[in-house]
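Treating backbone geometry as a discrete language has practical consequences that deserve illustration. No coordinates are needed to read the tokens, only the vocabulary itself. For completeness, the protein is quoted in full, as a sequence line and a line of structure tokens:
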Amino acid sequence: MKESLLPANILGELYSKLIINSSINSLGVITGATLGKLLAVRKIRSIFIALMREAMAVAEAMGIKVEATTGGRLDYCQFLAGSGPFQGFKRHLIIRVPFNEAVVTMVKEIEAGRRPRSMTNIKDKAFVAF
């Protein structure tokens, strides 16, 4: 019998890619900035972490075991684990929801021409906690 080329947990693999792509792409759309410029800004890294944390909570609620990403092998569970000062410093742990909804709204406003693609979008009230 021929062995399957698909991963055993295909849904977990796909969701893993969804998390990273939706976080990076959505912030890129609302700012118009490249990934390098985005990750150079502490506030944006904090928003990125909050988007990731929220997506992982959804996956957990849906019973999806998210796999480590293939690009860089980021293990979301390990990355988001812990609540001590070191872990918080390490990933700029700030939690506030619903970030994904706010980002989707901004993207739709940009598509409709009601909002420009700009780094000033990071100053939106949705991200005031950062």
About this structure: Residues 10-31 form the longest helix (22 residues). Helices lie at 10-31, 35-39, 42-62, 76-80, 85-91, 99-111. Confidence is low (pLDDT under 50) at residues 92-96. The CA atoms of residues 39 and 45 lie 6 Å apart.
